[in-house]
Amino acid sequence: MQQEAAQFTPVVSISNLVKRYHEKVAVDHFYLTVGEGEILGLLGPNGSGKTTTLNCLLSLLKYDKGDISVFGKPMTPSAYDIKRDIGVVMQNVAVIDALSVYENIDFFCGLYIRDKAQRKRCVEDAIAFTGLSEYRKYRPKKLSGGLLRRLNIACGIAHRPKLIIFDEPTVAVDPQSRNAILDGIRRLNKEGTTVIYTSHYMEEVEELCSRIVIIDNGHQVAEGTASSLKASLRNRETTTVEVSRITEEDLRSLREISHVYDVMVNGGTLIIRCDGGSHNLVHIMNFLMERGIDFGRISTQLPTLNDVFLEITGKELRD
Hints:
By secondary structure, the chain is an alpha/beta fold. The protein has helices at 50-57, 80-83, 101-110, 116-129, 145-157, 175-190, 202-208, 226-231, 248-254, 280-290, 305-313; strands at residues 10-21, 24-35, 39-43, 65-70, 73-74, 86-89, 163-167, 194-198, 211-216, 219-224, 237-243, 260-266, 269-274, 295-301. 33% of the residues lie in helices and 28% in strands. The protein has a 6-stranded mixed sheet. It has a 4-stranded antiparallel sheet with strand order 2-1-4-5, covered by helices on one side.
């Protein structure tokens, strides 16, 4: 599915990308445009081609077909002028155990910035940005999981890249560290950094990303904002009601209420799904009271990005 022409300055442009591993097609004619200043969420189940696409984007993998450009220039293994402006924060923490926090950040920053005075300023900024000032002399083995993640981020952003790829940056961290990481990404974006963000935590993506692309079986299967993707689902609202009794005639009449498209009973719980409309809960409660149906707890739930993801990619387990 080819994305429509973007109305922004493209930082990343992937066109008709194909990557095969022998007979297996990992990426199948994939298109992607990331605009300047976006936080783009790139989602996909395990084995969807997401990681392969990122590795092709970074020119870490050779691909069979397609064009990739970054900052308007073709991306190649030797395009060091482009790579200097890219930061990568991978899921697996990649730091050097023998070096302190400061020395780790200085080492990775030094891969891009040779001038010592400039590098020192960048390292200090990265330490302050990630809240690692009091840990600058610590070795990685003495850091908690959340601090290690923050160190990993500091190493990836110290050279002040224009584009940063975050691959599952909040895996296995506590809520406080997760909030600190997400707030840091927002600050980077406000300062002008373009972000590609991958995660299996759908609530993070929904909260953080300005646009979302879902990839499965190597090609794009959905694209849009979190709101527009949720609006594409038929199920726009689910109401559950605890009931002691309800007749088949009551169920048939419930289905005749405007926007109700599915009604079922599971034990003592009545489940009603609606495909749109407003004040659905009020209409359902009025119906129950008019029919004299005793009910207890009642709740309503709007669709989530997780619902969208499962609807599009299926509920089967992936390897």
